[in-house]
Amino acid sequence: MIDFSKLDKTIHEKARLGIMTLLASRGDPWPFQDLKLELEMSDGNLITHLRTLEQAGYLTGEKLTGDGRPQTLYTLTAPGRKAFEDYLSILEQILNLGK
Questions:
Q1: Which helix (H) or strand (E) covers residue 12, if one does?
Q2: Which runs of E-coded beta strand occur in the chain?
Q3: For labeling, which of 18, 46, 74, 89 is most exposed (least CB within 10 Å)?
Q4: How many CA atoms does the CB half-sphere of 28 hold within 13 Å?
Q5: For residue 57, what are the contacts with CB-CB under 8 A and spacing of at least 6?
């Protein structure tokens, strides 16, 4: 039987799952504005979820300054990628039970 308590509650929340999925989907960092547009989230809501994931050690944000407006780029950390892969593995087990 699957131990549902092993689902990472930090990732499992809908918005954070979306963030993790986007960050895992490509190797390049995601700018804050691109995440915001893709996930259709407000600045405040997105920042709150990004901070939660950053505090868990799942992602990092790098603020770039230069010409024009500062920009923050987000990438998954190695522990974040591992946590996401583990999360997906448990989801696959759940899906396989339903077949």
A1: helix 9-12
A2: 30-31, 59-64, 71-76
A3: 89
A4: 5
A5: 77, 79, 80
Place of tokens 């691109």: 34
Mean pLDDT, rounded, of the chain: 93
Contacts of 38 (CB under 8 A, 6+ apart): 22
Overall average pLDDT of the 7-36 stretch = 95
What are the structure tokens assigned to 59, written together? 């992602």
Is a pLDDT exceeding 80 seen at residue 28?
Answer: yes
Whether the CB-CB separation of 88 and 76 falls below 8 Å is answered with no
Give the whole-angstrom CA distance, residue 93 versus residue 35: 29
pLDDT bin (cut points 50, 70, 90) of residue 82 is very high
Cα separation, 67 vs 17, in Å, equals 32
3-state secondary structure of 38: helix
pLDDT(26) > 80: yes
